[in-house]
Amino acid sequence: MTEVSLLKVQNLRVSYPIHSSILQRRIGENMAVKDVNFTISAGQTVGLVGESGSGKSTVARTIIGLEKADGGRIEFEGRDITQSTRTELKALRRDMQMVFQDPFASLNPRLSVQEIIVEPWLAHPDVVPKNRRASEAKALMDRVGLNPDYASRFPHQFSGGQRQRIGIARALALQPKLIICDEAVSALDVSVQAQVLNLLDDLKQEFNLAYLFISHDLSVIEHICDRVLVLNGGVVVEEGTPRELFENPQDDYTKRLFAAVPVIRPWLNGASSKPAGTIPRY
Amino acid sequence: MLGYVIRRILLAVFVLWGVSTVVFIIVRLVPADPALLIAGDTATADQLAALRNQMGLDRPPLVQYGSFLGGVVTGDFGSSYTQSVPAMQLVAQALPNTALLAFLAVLGALVVSFPLGVVAAVRVNRPIDRIVTTGSLIVQALPSFWIGVVLLLIFSRTLKWLPSADLTSAQSLILPTTVLALPLIALLTRLIRSGLIEVNGEGYINTARAKGMREPAILFTHAIRNALIPIITVVGLAFGTLLGGAVVTETVFSFPGIGKLLVSSIHVRDYSVVQACVIVIAAAFVLINLLVDLLYAYLDPRVRLAK
Amino acid sequence: MTEQLVADSRRAQSPLLSVRDLQVEFTTSAGIARALDGVSFDVQAGETLAILGESGSGKSVTSQAIMALLPKPAGSIVGGSILYDGIDLAKEPVSRVRDLCATDIAMIFQDPLSSLNPVFRIGDQVAEPFRRRLGMGKKEALARALELLKRVGIADAERRISNYPHQFSGGQRQRIMIAMAIALKPRILIADEPTTALDVTVQAQIMRLLAELQAETGMAMILISHDLGVVADSASRVAIMYAGRIIETGGIREVYDHPQHPYTKGLLDSIPGAHAMGEPLRPIVGSPPNLLDLPAGCAFHPRCPIAVPECRAAVPSLREPEGAALGHHVACIRAEEVRSHD
Amino acid sequence: MTTAPTTSAAPAMTKARRSRWGVHTRTLVPCAIIALIAVGAIFVPVLYGYDPLRVDLADRLKPPGSVLPNGSIAVFGTDQIGSDLFAQMMAGARVSLIIGAATLAIAGVIGVLIGMLAGYYGGWLDTVLMRVADIQLAFPAILLAVLLAAVLGQGVLNVIIVLSISNWVVFARIARSQVLALKDREYVEAARTLGLGNFHIIFRTLLPGSLPPILVVGTVELGHVVLAEAALSFLGVGVPMGTASLGSTIANGVQYLSTAWWISTLPGVLLLLLVLATGVLGDAVRDRLDPRLRSL
């Protein structure tokens, strides 16, 4: 951890205002994220786990600029991006991309796959010159495992897993250094989820990508992450490598969370020797 | 809930202020000089000036606006220059007639549209549903003044069954009520039908089925209440169409309501009466919608119990 | 070994629910989709059967067919039988099936928020089966509802019985759904993805509650899920579905430890965390098939690593492969080739 | 994830398939009717040499099918000043369609623009828009039109202005609600994370997504505007004397109801046909573009 960190989040605080019911004045705030600190180095995968309401998605959305931070610093390659102007932010977007949860909602239904992948270059025209965009888009499709012949098809003609590949291709288009995956595989069937996880793994090696991986699924987090942060009520309650956390959780909440994860073959690891059909362990 | 009620009431007050202001501005835009209208072309400049002074037209606009708003609050809209009585008095005479007409129309519309909508929803895409939906589509397209004329032609002039004008008997209410209720029947039938169909796909309907409830019981306990709550709001808004429709319908049937008063006042440029009519109709509409909103909130626990 | 004997003796009795060769079709704008194609299984009194599958596999359609909840008019049973207590539910009119609902077969759904009527107090909703089906008075029915709410773990039930669904958390809503489902002491409870919408800690609580209630009442359970892990603790038998057919069924340990169908094996290999960390997952290639355009023969053959030309020839039927445990059936002509990897 | 997509989508799809032929017919037939009326409105008055101000007392109140002294046949009869009713109806339809199209264009463009901006940016713009809409909704549409028309005076342009003012809110509200619904969709957020500007997001991402319901509303509103114009003219606050309008023709015929029923009835049938065509077309467009808008 001596190398320069790619992303550094310090004392991040995000709240949603509560409005009074009469005059819609702001009378208070709901703290979604209270105090979150972590760093991501280049090429590293950091996982954020937590249950609904833990603030994990808010952290991701604040880093990418979809929500505003109320306090704290977010540094990307040493620059504070919470204070950035619009133009600075736009430049930052090139280095930081996002893959969304819902493969059915995250692609504009009115654009073809090629148009979807080319769209980032409309915002950043210098990345790929105009005359090479079509071929580059097809190359990206090929890289994420989609048949480039389908470039003119529309999102609804693809399955969930294929759509998520389109979303990944769009994120890769700007050659980012960090990709934020917000529940990116949660909506996929297990057999397809594994394909996408493997694709993300391959891309990481190939482009030296760093991931901020947000998920409620601990087994996915365990599989893909180098470091894991456990969020509860907007605070990081525990941090460590997946092995440390799974084998020796310290915090009470972490213990409860990990104990609740269903085990595929509970009869194997001795934790549960009860015959099937009786009370499951907690 | 209390916050919601207070917010709704504040909003209603604000809207009434807005309506009054808009009416004030529009009426001040009138190219004709009200004083000239009243005094007539033969009046001398002195007479006109005196009349202007009496009507407050020579005062600064802001002062006029202030006394106008004061008048709105106290119900004083000045005198009708054609009939030399307070405008509000004319409105007060006409209002109960229109209220009766509107009430009968809404009642009739509910009585007719409810079974039609339910039958169409239960037999969706069957012949009866097609007849009901097509029928309501046609009825919705009927120009109300024209259908009024046609009914008048058939029942009053040709068959001589029903009287055409005045409020002399209960029979004379039948045609105007029908004309007024028709578009509402069409609208409500369509809404009740689509509301029920939409609710039918909800999870709690399946839950009720899994509880072993029969379809009619599900329809009348679980489905109707959920389908009707959003429709209540529409009924409130439909009152606006209804009050607007009264303007046309009353003119066709020479029915002595506020709509006819408004149109005839516009023709003789009696602007104090016009102002009074418009503001009273708008106020009635705002009031009804306020009540509807409160009813809605009361019926939907998600709104009633929201903090 | 004793377990096996108990299971065998049970099997000797006639099953509580027996689904035979069930076929369900959906009419869509693009054609007719065979959502279920020859599904057969038995449920014994007191046991828990897990039906597992991915989206489009037909697992939820199975429960909808049993409860006569198939969306009309698009979905309909076109063949087979659902035998319960000597009655074929597939052939009975809907109203007859409804009479059995709640008293004999009950069901809970995935999304507890939309499954509860937002405009009625939860007490009234839980009391509804007592009032409608048993003709109880309001007071008595509410008293029974209160008991049930206490039993499923709603804290402060006396007060909360007059609250509305939106005032409860997701886990509490599912508890209320469970209370409603077990009100008339059904002999079979169908739980369709009961924990999918819930957080993992809540999921564990709900699964535990279901298992406790089953132990108390002796009802049979059909657990429908996409998650192989969630059912592992409570189910005794599993049926794995793919493209509208059951492709493997048997005792849960037997199937999980020694999967004999390449799809089951692929599923188990796809689950992250099920094997050593850092090792790449071994996913199944390709995507689940389109029900409107199923591959010829075995629907899985285009994605199957060990497919042979014969796989295209005919749809394989369930059979007991050599060396498999009793009751372990697989619909694969190459089942013996599939090696377990434990 | 749980239920097969087939189960949830299936009922809607069956319905769609069953009514596809229906949707096709329901689009074509009203389009043909509107086109036919439009063609008639353009050419018939010219062919008949229709002059609204010409009085020909000898030809007054002739019933439909009468042969006039000059040898021509008045298919729909003549009115109280002896002008041919068919030509007059078509001239009235011309005014209806011109006013309808112009009003839709003005109210639609202004309403959609303001609605989208208010929905996208929120804040004071949105608050002002919503309050203005609240106030305007408190005037029953015809009431506002009557009041404005009374103030502005009669005239085709004035009717267009009046109806635009009372209709833009409909477009603003639907555009705003669409933008609010789409704004938080992941694909719109994705466009923001890509660094695309507000202009691109509003006009290239949100506008295409919002169009279907706006088109539906536009079609239905055409009928409403035509009706409103006729109602204003019927009340005598619409188009001026000397300009044909279905509404004023109907009003003129009321006095002659017992002697010449056709003057009031026939223009109403044409009006009904025109409005019904837009209603059916609106329904068909809605079914075709987005079945979820059924309840609109």
TrEMBL record, chain B:
> What is one GO cellular-component annotation here?
plasma membrane
Q: Where in the cell is it found?
A: Cell membrane
Q: Which family does it belong to?
A: Belongs to the binding-protein-dependent transport system permease family.
Its membrane topology is listed as:
Multi-pass membrane protein
Q: What is this protein called?
A: ABC transmembrane type-1 domain-containing protein
Q: Which UniProt keywords apply?
A: Cell membrane, Membrane, Transmembrane, Transmembrane helix, Transport
Q: What is any Pfam family matched here?
A: BPD_transp_1
Q: What is the lineage of its organism?
A: Bacteria, Bacillati, Actinomycetota, Actinomycetes, Micrococcales
Automatic annotation (TrEMBL), chain C:
> Domain ABC transporter: where?
19-268
Q: Which GO terms describe its biological process?
A: peptide transport
- How does this protein sit in the membrane? Peripheral membrane protein
Q: Which GO terms describe its cellular component?
A: plasma membrane
The principal localisation class reads membrane
Q: Which PROSITE patterns match?
A: ABC_TRANSPORTER_1 (PS00211), ABC_TRANSPORTER_2 (PS50893)
**What keywords are assigned to this protein?**
ATP-binding, Cell membrane, Membrane, Nucleotide-binding, Transport
| InterPro entries assigned | AAA+_ATPase (IPR003593), ABC_Ni/Peptide_Import (IPR050388), ABC_transporter-like_ATP-bd (IPR003439), ABC_transporter-like_CS (IPR017871), Oligopep_ABC_C (IPR013563), P-loop_NTPase (IPR027417)
Q: Extract the GO molecular function terms from the UniProt entry.
A: ATP binding; ATP hydrolysis activity
Cellular compartments annotated: Cell membrane
- Alphabetical list of Pfam families matching this protein: ABC_tran, oligo_HPY
Q: Which CDD domains does its entry note?
A: ABC_NikE_OppD_transporters
- What does the sequence similarity comment in the record state about its family? Belongs to the ABC transporter superfamily.
UniProt protein name: Methionine ABC transporter ATP-binding protein
**Which organism is this protein's natural source?**
Arthrobacter psychrolactophilus
